[in-house]
Amino acid sequence: MNNLEERIINELKQVYDPELRQDVVSLKLVRDLKADEKTGEVSLVFKPTAFICPIGIQLALMIKQAIVKVEGVKKVDMEVIDFVYAKQAMEYLKQLDEKEKEEN
Amino acid sequence: MRAKEIVFISGKGGTGKTTITSSFVNWLYKNGYEFVIADADVDAADMHILLAPRILKKESFIGKSIAEIRNDACTSCDLCRQYCRFEAIDIINSEYIVNPFRCDGCGLCQLVCPVDAIDMIPQTVGEWYVSDTNSGKMVHAKLYPGAENSGNLVTMVKHQAHLITDENDIPLIVVDGPPGIGCPVTSSLSGASYAIIAAEPTLSAIHDMERAIATAKHFNVPVGIIINKATLNEKNTQSIKDYANKRDIPVIGEIPFSRCVVDSLVDLKFTTDGCPELRDIFDKMFKKILEGLK
Lengths: 104, 294
Prior knowledge:
The complex is a heterodimer of chains A (104) and B (294).
Chain A: H1 3-12, E1 16-17, E2 22-23, E3 30-35, E4 41-46, H2 56-68, E5 75-80, H3 86-103
Chain B: E1 4-9, H1 17-30, E2 36-39, H2 47-51, E3 54-69, H3 79-83, E4 89-92, E5 95-98, H4 108-112, E6 118-133, E7 136-143, H5 150-168, E8 172-176, H6 183-189, E9 194-199, H7 203-218, E10 223-228, H8 234-246, E11 251-255, H9 259-266, H10 271-274, H11 279-293
Parallel strand pairs in B: 1-8, 1-9, 2-7, 2-8, 9-10, 10-11
Antiparallel strand pairs in B: 3-6, 4-5, 6-7
Helix pairs in contact in B: 5-6
């Protein structure tokens, strides 16, 4: 694990699943995390605790917002799997990118 | 690929969910299938009695937070007591005390407190375990007596079961569900591939079976029925079959009332082992469940 990945994991340890009251790292909700220290590109997979997770979209956004805050991160490519609203979650994540572009 | 989940529920308690689930587990194991067992009846788990798990991992389960008032900071403004709709705050010997059995953990008292004298303290409400059994890995849990958040604990049990299936490429989770149609049942059904209703030919079981089926259908989970102790009341058994026929719900099988089932359980044996006379019935029934899963 490189330094950027370590810092991302540390940031994600502050993101809590409000139902199970544990952070998304210890719950293993984030998988295949890869971060390129040179380009700042990050990719990961998010799988909520349940297929019909009532807070899956919310958690997806919280995870992405936490990663974006980490110094050195330029782009986050996040896939949501095994979730009834995976498509909608991906849409919201895309909107988050567009919002950030507008703000910059 | 996400493992499929077969969930055994019933509505009414005591219809034979765990007996049938454990028999199914034993049959799957003997026929070479790979699976993980999840005991989602966290309020009154009992699969462990028969499966004798060897605990590999034990974790505390944190439930809702309960308000705690720091009386050294409290100014006795009484706002928390007035706003609490659960009447959870009492004045005892001039001190404001939270009754933990009444507190719902909503946090309103903390919001209205003008001097920040209230903390919300997370409570440990149960435990969950990952264990090894002679039939395979098992995730199970224990909710403390009177504790809430059973639905969330079921979510945790199923989540941990999925972590095992994902890591080991196991295609199936067998879930022993809880009775009723409340939070732990809806959590058990969340994302399930197939719900098997263990029904018995009694009026209360039929009534509750209908409610359990309605709950499963609400979540678009396909349903099948096993009529347990079918020979106890043939008229009621026929009512269950008629109900199923009208709604295109498959009756997967009928288990006759048999003394050997009770004897097997008393001897801590799977009924698939202790009831040779029911072996063919179990065999047909369990094959049908797997066919329904496809």
